[in-house]
Each structure stands twice: as structure tokens, then as C-alpha cells.
């Protein structure tokens, strides 16, 4: 019996090795034909088994002779794209590169022209939708669909993203930012206590903004009022259901729903309860909208749920007489799926940008000072309640405030690799540096945003190190050189989204440096570019303006010098402590970042102090 089992096992292993070798040969032959430089690997880094077990194997791989492994060993780590950035391309002296493995060929791109060609040819380079299954927890949506189905979702979800509705985003962001600051400081504060929670509170702020501006649901800060009331029929408040769901999203994504439902594990029970509760709240909102439509009343504002209900073809007539109404254009699950994806796509990305802008500015006090001077000249002494969207927003967008946001998104784009693919058996031609190349069929593609953003071909820089550094001033144009556009007409270009065409709006204000098309892609480009780009920009600029108009953000040095010591320390000693805090922050930015849904600091936190302007403790 045993020899049979051994034989069967040996046969399976031999068949597996043979199959793997054959797949590798096929992929290698396709890469050789492509005309694109390639590097070979023994495993596909994003194979699920490898992803889960790679830390077990890596110590063995590291013991193999270096001459065997040096080409590919670094590429076995799932975070390699972030670790390597543009170095990966520099090594092969090419801004497009295929990584060949038995599991798949993947084309990595850090070339602006190639990025643009790929994003402009939606049908030739579709999204690998299976990678987005995780965002389908409630149903299919505009992020996770392709082809005609996606067009349908995009057509229905685009209308609320208008300039008119961005005014609401602006107002809500100003209000939320003031509230966030009130949680850390008072009117009398000169120097706040150490604040460790900027990342989590920025997340909360963004969630409040999308919830209120997008869905009309007001959420509150703990110091404002309690919103933990649980309505009849529920076991959790809206806020705690949503927060718990988002905190446990990875569990939701990785565990099949039937298992979640019956699993005795506490983490599964918590995640499943939040999933059911939030779903129930959204279904109630959906039913309220249907009732509104039926009664003929409508609501002002962004009203994303209202737009989904109307877009789905639910009308007064169809509800009163279902016979006449025809079929519903989005299923109930898809309506919920889209509502959820707006919350998901709309909060973490913007929150990261706010958090890291604060961090970079605390590390670059000179840039912070310049930002504050620009804020003073744009906003004067007016309180935030008097800031005006039409007047102030374009000027913020075109000032150091816009430069800070752009530079933060250049260095740390929340999505560091935008996935695309080529259809099975349909190789696709591209032009790279004036010559024709062919991307094999069934090839994964990764538009490497962080690498493109560091490609010296496209960016004003003083040295290669300068490109790695946060220097928002690189976006400020020499005022003596005319840029051809005024802020006013640049703003008009931003108006209106053509749901069915590629997004042609420029990413930055006319008064700032405008990178070549395809070189700056934090929001992607073309047909599938970010629907909420303007929403996010408005929110981020409003929040930065509120914080830095009144406060200077400093790195907290209390890990290196106690408050008592600080009081009596010389300026030189204080500066030494600051350098240590700065080195720690740099190390976390270099080694503590990881992508789960978006790129975040996951291996530590940086504490800050909010200091009333004029009471700064460190030299700019
Ligand atoms: C700094 C903030 C943001 C960044 C950097 C960002 C980035 C992106 C990127 C790179 C994509 C393309 C993803 C892909 O192709 O896989 C995308 C798509 C999308 N984003 Fe954003 N996003 C931000 C904020 C927002 C906000 C605030 C919303 C909504 C309120 C939003 C809604 C969407 C939607 C619906 C899509 C899918 C569009 C489509 O496929 O047609 N995003 N975003």
C-alpha cells in the first residue's frame, strides 16, 4: 500500500514540476518575442500560496549561491515594487520590463507614454477584475466591473460628481477639519500634548466627509456628541457598524461569507455582524430613497444613494406601476455594492494623503513656512466659516497648498501599482521610445505609479536623491515665466465628467508645474481614472488649509528628550533631538510602509505636536 501512495505522490510531484516547467517555457518564449527586456523568476510572487508562505521559504532561498539568485531574489518579496521603485527599471536600463515566471508574465511600466497608451486603450488593456473581488462584499460595482457592464455602472455613478456638489465637500471638509483640531487643541493651547493618532483621525475625518457629503449621514467626533445611539431593529450604531466593517475588511475579503456566518471565531463573528448591520442600514437608506422617488420628492446635494436609485431606472412610474416600469438597470446588490465602494475608495486614499502631508511638512519646516505664507496671502484673517469655494479653492489649488498635495501624491501614491492585463491569446502592440514592442496575451500589467513618479525623465530635479525627497517647491513655476493659463480657465477645464470618454482633465493647476501626460498618475488616467479625484482634491486642500493656517506641526521629540529637559535645553540640543525624531520618521517611511488596500505606514507611528503659529520651538 505504502509504495503505491509513494508512487502516486511522486507522480503528482513530477507532473506538477513538468507542468510548471512547460508554463515557464511558454511564458519565456512570449517574453523573448515581445522586444521588451525581461527577467526570469522561479515563482510568481503574487501566487496565493507563495504570498501566504513566502516568509517560510525565504531563509532557504537566501542560502542558495548568490550567483544563482541575484537577478530575482529581491523580487520574491511582495513589497518589492515599493522597495525598488525606479531602481528596478534603472537596473535594466529600460522603463518597461517583463518579469517572467511559471505562473504569469507581468509587464511593469514606469514610462509616461506607455502608461498613457495603456490607459487610453480600455478594451485592449482591461482591468483584471478578479483582483477586485475583495471590494464586492455587497455586490458588483463601478470599481470591480469591466466592458459594457462597467460603462453601465460608470454612467449611473458619475452624475453626482459635479463642481456644484464639490462645494458641499469643501464645506464639510472645513467643518470636519476644525472639529478634528478641536480634539487635539483648545483656543488657549500653545503647544499640544504629543499626538499619535493623526493617521487614524484623518481616516475618521475622511469617513465623516464622504458619509455626510455623499450620503447625507452626519457622523460626529467623540468630543462633539455621541452618535452611538442604536435604533430599533439594530444591534450596532451606524457609525460603529461602518467603522468595525472597515477595520475588519481584510477578514471579510479573505473569508468566504458562508464560513463567516457559521464560524465560532470571535473575529469572524465581529466582522460578520458589522457586515450585516451596515448592509441593513444601507438597505434602509435605499428603501427611504425609493419612498422619496415614489412620492415625487427629491433632495439637493450629492445624494449618492439617490443617484444610484434613479440611475437604476427606479422612477415614480415604475414604483407605482411595476408593469410599466421595465426592468431595473442595477440590481439591489449592485446598488449596495456601489454605495460601499464609494465609502471605501473615498476615505482611505484621501486620509493617507492628509496624514502624510502633515508628516512631510513636519519634517520639512521651511516648506511648511512657505505654505503658511501662501495661506495667509490667500485667506487673510478670515475665519474658515468665511472661506469661499469659488474664490479660495482655485487659489489654494494653484499655490503651495496644491504643491504640497501634488508632491505628497507623487512620493506616496496610495495605489503604487495600477493593474491592467491583456486578453487571452491577444498580444497587444505598444510604442516604446519610438519602437514597436508586443505585450504577450494574458499578461498582467502593473503601471508602477511610484516608479514613474521618480523617473528623472519627467521631473524637475537637482539630483537623483532630490527626486526621492519631498520638495513641494518643485511644482512652483517661476512667476517671471508665463504659463499660458490663468487659474480661472484652468478651473473650467476641471468642470464636468464625461462618463463615457477618457478623463482629459489635467491633474494639477495651471499655475503649477504640469508633468507630461502619463508621468503623474496617482489617480490613474484615461477611461478608468478616479471618479472621485476632484472630491479628494477639494477635501485634502481644505483640511491642509485649516490645519496650517492656525497651527505649525512639529515632530514630537519627547522620545528623545523629556518635556522637563526640553524646557532648559539649548537650541542646539533641541535641534539634535529633532534630528533623531526626523531620522526615525525617515526610517519608518523607508521600511515601515506596506500596501493592504492602499499604501500606509504599518510598522509604527510618528507623533506630532500642534504648536500655535508664532510659538514654534524649532527653526524653519
Ligand atoms: C487621494 C485620493 C484618491 C486617490 C489617490 C485615488 C486613486 C484612484 C486610482 C489610482 C483609481 C484607479 C484604480 C484602478 O484602476 O484600479 C481610482 C479609481 C476610483 N476612485 Fe479614486 N482615488 C482617490 C479618492 C477617491 C474618492 C474620494 C472617491 C469617491 C468619493 C474615489 C472613487 C473612485 C472610483 C469610484 C474609482 C473607480 C473608477 C472606475 O473604474 O471607473 N476615489 N482612484
From TrEMBL:
Keyword Magnesium among UniProt keywords: no
Lipid biosynthesis is among the record's keywords: no
A Pfam family of this chain: p450
UniProt source species: Zasmidium cellare
Keywords: Heme, Iron, Metal-binding, Monooxygenase, Oxidoreductase
Cofactor annotation: heme
Superkingdom of this protein's organism: Eukaryota
Lineage: Eukaryota, Fungi, Dikarya, Ascomycota, Pezizomycotina
This protein's name: Cytochrome P450
Family: Belongs to the cytochrome P450 family.
PANTHER family associated with the record: CYTOCHROME P450 (PTHR24305), CYTOCHROME P450 12A4, MITOCHONDRIAL-RELATED (PTHR24305:SF166)
Amino acid at each position: 500500500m505504502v509504495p503505491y501512495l509513494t508512487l502516486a505522490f511522486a507522480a503528482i510531484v513530477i507532473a506538477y514540476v513538468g507542468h510548471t516547467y512547460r508554463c515557464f517555457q511558454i511564458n519565456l518564449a512570449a517574453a523573448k518575442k515581445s522586444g521588451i527586456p525581461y527577467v526570469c523568476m522561479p515563482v510568481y510572487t503574487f501566487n496565493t500560496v507563495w504570498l501566504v508562505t513566502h516568509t517560510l521559504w525565504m531563509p532557504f532561498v537566501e542560502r542558495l549561491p548568490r550567483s544563482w539568485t541575484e537577478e530575482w531574489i529581491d523580487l520574491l518579496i511582495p513589497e518589492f515594487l515599493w522597495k525598488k521603485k525606479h531602481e528596478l527599471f534603472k537596473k535594466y536600463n529600460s522603463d518597461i520590463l517583463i518579469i517572467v515566471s511559471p505562473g504569469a508574465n507581468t509587464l511593469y511600466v514606469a514610462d509616461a507614454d506607455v502608461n498613457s497608451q495603456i490607459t487610453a486603450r480600455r478594451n485592449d488593456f482591461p482591468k483584471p477584475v478578479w483582483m477586485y473581488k475583495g471590494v464586492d462584499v455587497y455586490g458588483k460595482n463601478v470599481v470591480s466591473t469591466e466592458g459594457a457592464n462597467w460603462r453601465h455602472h460608470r454612467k449611473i455613478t458619475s452624475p453626482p460628481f459635479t463642481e456644484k456638489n464639490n462645494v458641499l465637500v469643501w464645506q464639510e471638509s472645513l467643518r470636519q477639519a476644525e472639529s478634528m483640531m478641536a480634539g487635539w487643541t483648545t483656543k488657549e493651547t500653545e503647544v499640544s500634548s504629543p499626538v499619535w493618532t493623526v493617521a487614524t483621525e484623518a481616516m475618521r475625518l475622511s469617513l465623516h466627509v464622504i458619509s455626510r457629503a455623499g450620503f447625507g449621514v452626519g457622523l460626529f467626533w467623540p468630543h462633539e456628541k455621541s452618535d452611538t445611539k442604536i435604533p430599533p431593529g439594530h444591534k450596532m450604531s451606524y457609525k460603529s457598524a461602518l467603522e468595525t466593517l472597515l477595520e475588519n475588511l481584510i477578514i471579510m475579503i479573505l473569508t468566504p461569507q458562508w464560513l463567516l456566518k457559521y464560524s465560532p471565531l470571535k473575529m469572524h463573528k465581529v466582522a460578520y455582524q458589522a457586515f450585516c448591520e451596515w448592509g441593513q442600514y444601507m438597505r434602509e437608506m435605499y428603501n427611504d430613497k425609493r419612498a422619496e422617488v415614489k412620492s415625487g420628492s427629491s433632495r439637493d446635494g450629492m445624494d449618492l444613494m439617490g443617484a444610484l436609485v434613479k440611475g437604476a431606472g427606479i422612477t415614480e412610474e415604475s414604483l407605482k406601476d411595476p408593469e410599466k416600469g421595465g426592468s431595473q438597470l442595477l440590481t439591489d446588490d449592485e446598488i449596495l455594492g456601489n454605495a460601499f465602494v464609494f465609502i471605501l475608495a473615498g476615505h482611505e486614499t484621501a486620509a493617507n494623503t492628509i496624514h502624510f502631508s502633515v508628516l512631510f511638512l513636519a519634517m520639512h519646516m521651511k516648506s511648511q513656512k512657505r505654505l503658511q505664507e501662501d495661506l495667509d496671502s490667500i485667506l487673510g484673517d478670515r475665519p474658515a466659516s468665511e472661506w469661499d469655494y469659488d474664490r479660495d479653492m482655485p487659489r489654494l489649488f494653484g499655490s503651495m497648498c496644491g504643491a504640497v498635495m501634488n508632491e505628497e501624491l507623487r512620493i506616496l501614491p496610495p495605489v503604487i501599482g495600477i493593474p491592467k492585463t491583456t486578453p487571452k491569446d491577444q498580444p497587444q502592440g505598444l510604442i516604446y521610445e519610438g519602437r514597436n514592442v508586443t505585450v504577450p496575451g494574458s499578461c498582467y500589467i502593473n503601471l508602477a505609479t511610484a516608479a514613474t513618479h521618480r523617473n528623472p525623465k519627467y521631473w524637475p530635479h537637482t539630483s537623483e536623491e532630490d527626486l526621492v525627497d519631498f520638495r513641494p517647491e518643485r511644482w512652483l513655476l517661476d512667476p517671471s515665466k508665463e504659463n499660458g493659463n490663468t487659474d480661472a480657465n484652468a478651473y473650467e477645464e476641471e468642470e464636468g465628467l464625461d462618463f463615457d470618454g477618457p478623463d482629459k482633465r489635467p491633474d494639477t493647476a495651471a499655475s503649477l508645474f504640469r508633468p507630461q501626460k502619463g508621468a503623474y498618475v496617482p489617480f490613474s488616467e484615461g477611461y478608468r481614472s478616479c471618479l472621485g479625484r476632484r472630491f479628494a482634491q477639494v477635501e485634502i486642500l481644505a483640511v491642509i488649509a485649516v490645519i496650517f493656517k492656525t497651527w505649525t506641526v512639529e515632530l514630537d521629540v519627547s522620545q528623545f528628550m523629556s518635556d522637563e529637559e526640553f524646557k532648559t535645553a539649548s537650541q542646539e540640543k533641541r535641534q539634535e533631538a529633532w534630528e533623531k525624531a526626523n531620522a526615525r520618521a525617515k526610517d519608518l517611511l523607508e521600511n515601515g510602509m506596506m500596501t493592504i488596500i492602499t499604501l500606509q505606514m504599518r510598522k509604527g507611528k510618528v507623533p506630532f505636536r500642534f504648536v500655535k503659529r508664532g510659538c514654534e520651538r524649532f527653526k524653519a
